[in-house]
Write a structure and sequence with these properties.
alpha/beta; TIM Barrel; 10-stranded mixed beta sheet; globular; binds iron/sulfur cluster
Length: 224
């Protein structure tokens, strides 16, 4: 797998995979670009100290399906969270992800907005959400709230769509501005968006009340 680095905290190891199949206009991640080192799944797993949960992120961890499946196999027995844009999350891949917790992004429900923002159609992402629900996965859907781009009405439409599938866990993420694209939303906007989504779903949270990234971590670069 092509890996940029590992980020180690006391409780978690984040594996930053290089490369992404989306071209989100507001992306701040250096890992979206191809790069990093080609490291075997066995070598990645042996660098992760015991007792840490493992977050697979990037970039997009599903673009190398075979590498991802091998890494999850190597990580057997650990808690693994897969953070994904969902585009490659098809039935065949899900068969190999038993016991993995999935955080899937739904950037936008409006197909035109999704295509404009990411460069890709959202039909496969919507289907992946249905599959995760139907197959009983432990998962949540995340949407980045971006002022004037992905706003309260879009969040509300997404929540209504999800509620038609089931009572799905949903999280609104506060946008971190990058390269002059939009701005940081006010806390009140995020709270209003979660309130709007809560009309449809019982379990709605935001990145303001519920941080998912450890505050301090050590960066470990791997060599092949
Ligand atoms: S899916 Fe994530 S990493 Fe890829 S371009 Fe979009 S925000 Fe960046």
């Amino acid at each position: 797998m092509r890996i940029s680095y590992l980020a180690l905290s006391d409780t978690r190891c984040t594996v930053q995979v290089s490369g992404c199949n989306f071209r989100c206009r507001g992306c701040f991640s250096n890992e979206r670009h191809p790069g990093g080192e080609d490291v075997s799944p066995a070598r990645i797993a042996e660098q992760i100290p015991p007792g840490r949960e493992v977050l697979l992120a990037g970039g997009e961890p599903t673009i190398d399906k075979q590498g991802l499946v091998s890494l999850i196999h190597e990580l057997d027995g650990r808690k693994v969270i897969l953070s994904t844009n969902g585009y490659c999350l098809d039935e065949a891949l899900l068969e190999n992800l038993a016991r993995v917790t999935v955080h899937i992004d739904l950037k936008a429900l409006d197909p035109q907005l999704h295509r404009w923002y990411t460069g890709r159609d959202n039909a496969r992402v919507l289907e992946a959400i249905r599959l995760l629900y139907d197959q009983g996965f432990d998962f949540e859907v995340n949407t980045v709230y971006i002022p004037d781009v992905v706003n309260i009405s879009e969040v509300e439409h997404i929540a209504a769509f999800l509620s038609n599938i089931g009572n799905i866990r949903y999280k609104v993420i506060r946008y971190v501005p990058f390269g002059g694209f939009s701005q940081r939303p006010a806390e009140e906007e995020i709270n209003a968006a979660t309130t709007a989504a809560s009309k449809y779903l019982d379990n709605v949270s935001s990145s303001i009340e519920n941080r998912s990234h450890p505050a301090r971590s050590q960066v470990v670069r791997l060599v092949p």
